[in-house]
């Protein structure tokens, strides 16, 4: 793989990783609702889960999906249902009570998405599929071996992690502005609507 191809792949990784999508919407919401430290499992689940997905696509998973399009349809509709459920939870989330005001009887707030849940989410995330398939189709040389597939996957991990961290950090920076429960509720509902809107390209393709 020559330097020009590697540079183009790196540019694609940065642009596609930093632009809005389901992952970044949810990561920003995690930063707002839980702070940067508590959002770390979510952050690394996204990055390592997507890296594994890129590896699988590069090693031939995409050709399997081409042969069995029904499996892709199953993933598409299952992913839609899961994202609607996440959007519903986010829209109905309430601020976590302060320790001295929690009477133990109020219903629990939303919890940060864990590492494994975030990694599994990549398989039902339409933007993740587009990124992985486009990367391998456009930048992987013909008859490439495992080393070149791993290089492209590693490129996404190294360049994608700071992009994801930016969204969590942006959410963390907004926490002061959103301390008011009504503002936080408006933010969460807006993020939930953004998740629902992101389903449109997947369901109409």
UniProtKB/TrEMBL annotation:
InterPro entries registered for this protein in UniProt: LeuE-type
Domain of life according to the entry: Bacteria
Topology in membrane: Multi-pass membrane protein
Entry's transmembrane regions: 44-62, 146-170, 182-203
Compartment(s): Cell membrane
Pfam family, one: LysE
Annotated keywords: Cell membrane, Membrane, Transmembrane, Transmembrane helix
Protein name per UniProt: LysE family translocator
Organism of origin: Rhodoferax mekongensis
